[in-house]
Amino acid sequence: MEPLLTSSAILPEAILLASACLVLITDLFLSDRQRNLSYVLTLVGLAAVAAAATVPLFTGVVQYAYGGMVLTDPMSAVLKLFAVLATAFTLVYARSYAASRAMWRGEFFALALFTLLGVMAMISANNLLVIYLGLELQALSLYGLVALRRDDPKATEAAMKYFVLGALASGFLLYGMSMLYGATGTLDINELAHRINQGQAIHSVLILGTIFIVAGIAFKMGAVPFHMWVPDVYQGAPTPVALLLASAPKLAAFAITFRLLVEGLPQLAVDWQRMLAFIAVASIALGNVTAVAQTNIKRMLGYSTVGQMGFLLLALLAGVVGGNNAITAGAYGAAMFYVVTYSLATAGCFGIILFASRAGFEAEQIADLRGLARRSPWFAFVMTLLMLSLAGLPPTVGFTAKFVVLQALVSDGGSDTMYRIAVAAVLFSVVGAFYYLRVVKTMWFDEPTDDHPLEAGVDMRAVLTVNGLAVLALGILPQGLLALCNGAVLRALGG
Amino acid sequence: MSSPFPWLSFAIWIPILFGIYLLAAGRNHRPGGVRAVALAGSLVSFLVTLPVALGFDAVRTGLQWTELVPWIPALHAHYALGVDGISLWFVPLTGFITVVAVLAGWKSIESRVAQYYAAFLILSGLMIGVFCATDGLLFYVFFEATLIPMYLIIGVWGGPNRVYAAIKFFLYTLLGSLLMLVALVYLYQASGGSFEIAAWQRLPLALHPQILLFLAFFAAFAVKIPMWPVHTWLPDAHVEAPTAGSVVLAAIMLKLGAYGFLRFSLPIAPDAAHALAIPVIVISLIAVVYIGFVALVQTDMKKLVAYSSIAHMGFVTLGFFIFNPMGMEGAIAQMISHGFVSGAMFLCIGVLYDRLHSRNIADYGGVAQVMPRFAAFMMLFAMANCGLPATSGFVGEFLVILGAVQYQFWIGAIAATTLVLGAAYSLWMYKRVIFGAVSGPKVAKLQDIDTREFLALGVLAAAVLWMGLYPAPVMDALHTSVGGLLSQLAQTKFVPGSP
Which ipTM was obtained for this model? Predict the structure, then answer.
């Protein structure tokens, strides 16, 4: 057994934990006016975590620690980097919003950091229990964050809903894990795959376990038919929390899906791929169609997330497990590219909603963005890029992401079923384009009904600009990120 | 000529860079400066397209001015450009029409001027990109990206019903092009991971996938052209778009769809094209005849010209699917000519609309008496619109009719009704608007065209006459490439030994 905190494999997590504790303690001694110190401290901590997380990218080694319970590899490094980035964006975007709503407190920073810790634990996990622990840490922190405005009935309701359904989902996942443990006698993911491969496990128990695992994952992703909490929580949660909820945890959801299904249960691929196919198509259909009817922009983004997660699952169901490694890596690399760029675009969208809000005014409705192009042409342009990206239109990165997913979907020789799924997916994308375009229309074609000046700090303006332009730049030149994702997945698959 | 001078990249990126500059630095409260920059930008962009046409070797087969740079190695996608005789003339045409479009909005656009001109310049670069791309993914990116500026042009600077028209335009065309995206993915897989359009054209395919591919491409291009019965977005878009938007839409954007047929549908799925030729010909004839009648009864000038565009594009698709050199060359000549003529017609309507703020034919009458110079220009364009010899409209229509007669006499005969119908709707509208007694005090006070309008109409008139009197440069460039395309079309792509 290695001594605690000496393995460099968990260096980023250790730094994160330390800075979370530091922020929590320091903040006790700060008055409201000095709160920005906690903010700066948090951002510095995140920068240190990001720096530590990049190391595996340069070395390229897969490193196991603590008896194989956690691992670091290029894939976890990339996902962690983007999770840190999403959290940092959240804090920057949230600053003025939270400050004017009595949310700018130590708990906010500490809980955000603990959420990130949970996300990072899931990303590095190589053990069923570590996955579960990370999931619970993330979920508990988020329950607290959603309920942070305890005098707001809507937020409280959302927190309650999120808690009850989230606990149920955790239960599903844990139950599934217990079945896998019962069937194979191991919690280690590599060992799990190995034992199943040797035919030591009872197939029916494994299938049942897989069903529960898939259900739990679908719950956490917010995929149909386990999506009911998504729109309610997105709408009810304070906007910065909804932003946090929509970005970093999706990266973790991808990571655990990859670890559990692809690395842990490749022998059952035929079974879970069929489940994912149904979940994916249903999510794309229901998410996109229902989003059309929404007038609340946060709720709309909630349903849009359901649709986007469906697209992500499409790439996951396509990979040929155990076949040609390059094609498989291409497929899962596509999924990873999708989730990374999705979290980037979503973070920006919530950032714009926060930008349009001010003290005493919540930008909640799509109509609240009316005439944004007149009030702030630049940020209307940024939001247009983000919306086009979510809609999957070139030249933004959303197009590249959708394209690589479709490409991955049919890369397995391209059966007719896969092409039918692809056609269905693009047809629902047209429906999706409608409501994303409606936001563009509201910003550009409608006259403003509100002429309060839009105020935002330099930090927020700069980060929003970078966020929007990143979506465009990655769309025009996606090679770097695409190669990074493909390479990381290839490494994770042992290539 | 291993690495020729990158004129095509210049033609694509110079207008886009000017557009970005206007977005970043244009000040809406100083519209004069913005307009000057926009005009300079469009002129420079047009000038850099000229070496492409002048240095083109009409006898050589294959692509010229090629550029090849790896773009997304992970997907084997390249930044690959090149033109052949088919795409060659659309490059300067786009640059030319953009200059006209910039002049067209000179006075009538007063709000958000910088963004307005930026949208046009960026759109111009993107459209040239569509014509030059020889990589499937690059083509798709340019093809789709053109929707965004046009959506904003219609939606921000359009008429009262602009929001509906803009969204309809966008969703209609998006629906078609997403099906094309699936086709591109299929071809990428089938060709073993290549986006090179030329490789797709050589790829052997059985009839069933060919038909599916053909239909997917058809969905994208038929909507864009637009062909009957998916044409309904076009009249809405034209009526609501600002004048310059209509000019660009009719002159260039519709050609993107027709061009797609030549680059994708026909050479990639030649057997499917032969198998489905009759339905396409029937649809084209419906567009020519039925839409011709629809144009006749319009009371709104812009709608009338919009419908006449659909009828003319029906001629283009007819020319493609009769598979002989005359039809094909005539269709391409018709595309170029229609670029000049429809642009000019919309510009004429814009001139009237700027003054009277009405597009209703009934509100006009006797314009010739107060605007004689304008009446002369519009006469020329109306004549070109109905295909009078010595105008550009004649060359294409005549060749397509000849080709159609060669293919099947009755198809040619039905197509020839366009000469009557085109004359009927163009000249009848001209008569009601321009001739007769002055219809009212408002018309009596109309000012004749000023220097700017004279310039814009004048260059278009010169182009229409040049193409009508001396089409040789255009036609010469076409021969080799059309011959190559037709020989590709004549060969089956079936895998040897398969059914």
Answer: 0.87
